[in-house]
Write a structure and sequence with these properties.
The chain has 5 helices and 16 strands. It is of the alpha+beta class. The protein starts with a helix and ends with a helix.
Length: about 290
């Protein structure tokens, strides 16, 4: 058993030296939910040359995590393009797809590596992929935090935020962001390339911005630079939702008060006061 493991390790080590993987495309698909959380699916299409490289890709003896895949393929884009330094990420799953379009003579194949993860909604310290501004009753303005794209791994990342706040997307990469279907007053600093022909915009004198008023809610950018990238939208809560949120918040505050030191002290004072009233009432009845 030990000998077979050593042999497998030796084969993988040789394969790693001779490995030849070429990135053909990168796709980053981000779906933003109504609570400002998000689900992200990223995928890299690659071209594999040589039998050792194919064996390395298909080997069951290697770790199935992003850093291991990046090390053995030499592809810097195998990373979460939303950084953990800004957003809270969980439930990462890596799913290598079967090889295909193989040429047995040239010993080449195509393959796709897919990974997905969840991004938690905004936290109390405002650190998140999507920021929320409750700027008027029942209406919230959400904006994508461009800093979430700010810390690439390696020198050849296809989606990079520079010091000026511009997001650079290489010709190999595609960034797609889908916002909730009921989003209103949609604004982007640079319109995506997939808008419908004759897309309509509405100018708002109060903000000095042009808002997209079309039906699309999935926006795609590819092979371009997005200067001072901004994507924002608004959502209006229903009256029922506002009432529910009010009572939920009230319940939370009452519970927090009860379990706090101040709450315990108030309960003790109330108990002492009630006991005193009962005692005085009993004395008055005895005197009568």
């Amino acid at each position: 058993m030990r000998a077979s493991c050593l042999l497998a390790f030796a084969v993988l080590s040789l394969g790693l030296v001779a490995a030849d993987f070429e990135e053909r495309s990168l796709s980053v698909d981000i779906i933003i939910n109504s609570d400002a959380s998000a689900h992200v699916e990223e995928s890299i299409a690659m071209f594999i040359s040589g039998q050792p490289s194919r064996d390395l890709y298909e080997s069951p003896y290697v770790y199935n995590d992003l850093s291991s895949w990046r090390e053995r393929t030499g592809i810097d884009d195998i990373q979460n393009h939303i950084t953990r330094a800004v957003a809270s990420i969980e439930n990462l799953r890596v799913r290598p797809q079967p090889v295909g379009q193989c040429n047995n003579v040239a010993k080449t194949c195509h393959a796709t590596l897919v990974w997905e993860y969840d991004v938690n909604p905004i936290s109390q310290n405002q650190t998140a992929f999507v920021k929320a501004d409750y700027y008027k009753p029942r209406t919230t303005r959400y904006s994508v935090n461009r800093e979430a794209f700010g810390i690439p791994v390696g020198e050849n990342s296809s989606i990079v935020l520079n010091r000026n706040g511009d997001i650079k997307i290489s010709r190999l990469a595609q960034l797609e962001i889908t916002i909730p279907h009921d989003a209103q007053k949609v604004f982007f600093s640079k319109p995506p390339g997939n808008l419908e022909e004759g897309a309509q915009f509405s100018y708002d004198q109060a903000t000095g911005k042009k808002y997209y008023v079309g039906k699309s809610r999935a926006f795609i950018w590819s092979g371009e630079t997005l200067p001072q990238f901004e994507l924002s939208y608004e959502r209006e809560d229903t009256l029922e939702s506002e009432i529910f949120t009010f009572f939920a918040t009230l319940q939370y505050r009452v519970f927090s008060l009860i379990v706090s030191y101040e709450g315990i002290a108030l309960i003790l004072l109330a108990a002492i006061f009630a006991a005193s009233v009962i005692a005085l009432h009993s004395l008055s009845r005895s005197s009568a």
